[in-house]
Design a protein that fits this description.
two-stranded antiparallel ribbon; 20% strand
């Protein structure tokens, strides 16, 4: 199989984003470019030049509708949280054109052979107005995510570990984490995330997949109004208060690119993507 270049990956991801955008527009589902994708739109009017993924925000009510109705379309498949992805957020995967080869232990099992380029969908949940109380809840999620990661590392077969040393390490992981159930952990994360109904609060955050604890403490008003924003010559959606959110996540100097030594693809160390039918 022929490996995808960075430009190939960005091209496929852009096609995927177009499909998601059309679906959300047709069904009145709010979404916003998120994290490095939003930063790229603002700073580069497209992908950060060395970036190889796309992230989206959705308020929890819109996220739930999206997860419940998107299904499969145009060669894309929605992976619900906690199912085949073994994480607590949803992913939209390109199942028609690309395939993943990974050195990460949780991407080496039979069920992951069809894993491919994906777009992460991050729910925005209601949180306490008291930041200290929110931090306590975020700490609980962080502890569960640590368990989740341990359980994922213990998934692969010992026989697929390669060397004897790796096989022994994998056996020890399986013994140590034998009682960890990923789906149960993901459900616990979800239960914590939705404790405060989105419509009943004044603050919100991305809770299920972050290690930043209470850093992402947003006013819910940030996610009430949306604008069109340019990304790779196309128009997509972004929260109107993108400056405030980017300042919280990346600091007030977010328009300043990092030094050259830090301009690296996210997946280079462990993931390679290939054209499926090449």
């Amino acid at each position: 199989m022929k490996e995808l270049s960075l430009q190939d990956m960005q091209h496929v991801l852009l096609d995927m984003l177009k499909v998601i955008h059309s679906f959300c527009t047709e069904n009145n589902i709010r979404y916003s470019l998120a994290y490095g994708t939003l930063l790229g739109a603002v700073r580069h009017k497209g992908f950060i030049p060395w970036d190889d993924d796309i992230d989206l925000f959705m308020p929890r009510p819109d996220y739930d509708r999206f997860v419940g109705t998107f299904n499969s379309r145009c060669g894309l498949t929605l992976i619900p949280p906690g199912k085949d992805s073994d994480i607590a957020i949803a992913r939209v995967c390109d199942t028609e054109r690309t395939v993943l080869s990974s050195t990460l232990p949780w991407h080496t099992t039979e069920k992951d052979k069809e894993t491919s380029l994906w777009i992460d969908i991050f729910p925005i949940d209601g949180v306490e107005d008291d930041r200290n109380l929110f931090r306590e809840r975020a700490l609980k999620v962080a502890a569960l995510r640590k368990k989740q990661l341990s359980a994922r590392r213990a998934i692969p077969s010992i026989l697929s570990s390669g060397s004897l040393k790796q096989a022994v390490k994998q056996l020890l992981r399986k013994i140590r984490y034998i009682n960890l159930d990923i789906k149960k952990i993901n459900q616990q994360i979800l239960d914590i995330c939705v404790q405060i109904p989105y419509d009943s609060c004044n603050h919100c955050s991305q809770i299920p997949c972050t290690d930043s604890l209470d850093k992402q403490f947003y006013e819910k008003s940030f996610f009430e109004e949306y604008i069109d924003i340019e990304f790779e010559g196309q128009q997509f959606k972004a929260i109107k208060e993108w400056d405030k959110v980017l300042s919280i996540v990346y600091g007030e100097n977010y328009m300043q690119p990092p030094p050259p030594k830090d301009r690296e693809q996210h997946s280079l160390d462990h993931n390679k993507f290939f054209w499926k039918n090449s």
